[in-house]
Amino acid sequence: MTMAEYTSFQSDRAFFAREQFPYGLDRSGEFTRDQVQLIKAHGYAYRALDRGERQPENKEEREFVAFCHGQKTAESKHERVWNRFRAATSKPIINVSMDGARNKPQVDMAGETVDSDF
């Protein structure tokens, strides 16, 4: 490890992304163990830099911000793992329901029952 890796992307807490991955990053099937460790350790810093909520403190973080703004491709391990995280969290969420809503009568704005079997 280089000295830059010790000072870059510092965060005071672990990042879990429970909204996107309610069963955990490591159970999502989207990431390797090493990627999960990086996201947990540095996710808050990645997100803050990506959103512009934090100013980059060194060259590695400036390069990361350039990647986030589309000015360069993902090259470092931090850029590649954040790129993968963003891709995984931008997938559409498909909700499947088995509640039989198909057989329930629908009501229009005037309060009348609408036949939906056309």
The fraction of residues in strands falls at under 5%
Ends apart, CA distance between termini? 65 Å
Q: Low-confidence runs (pLDDT<50, min 5 residues)?
A: none
Order of helices and strands: HHHHEE
Overall structural class, as computed from helix and strand content, comes to mainly alpha
Widest beta sheet: strand line-up = 1-2
The largest sheet, given as strand count, sense and whether it forms a barrel, is: 2 strands, antiparallel
Task: Average the pLDDT over all residues and give the rounded result.
Answer: 84
Apparent shape: globular
Number of strands: 2
Overview of this protein structure:
This protein has 118 residues and is mainly α. It contains 4 helices and 2 strands. A two-stranded antiparallel sheet has the order 1-2. A hairpin with a 5-residue loop joins β1 (106-107) and β2 (113-114). α2 crosses α4.
In short:
The protein contains 4 helices and 2 strands. The protein is mainly alpha-helical and 118 residues long.
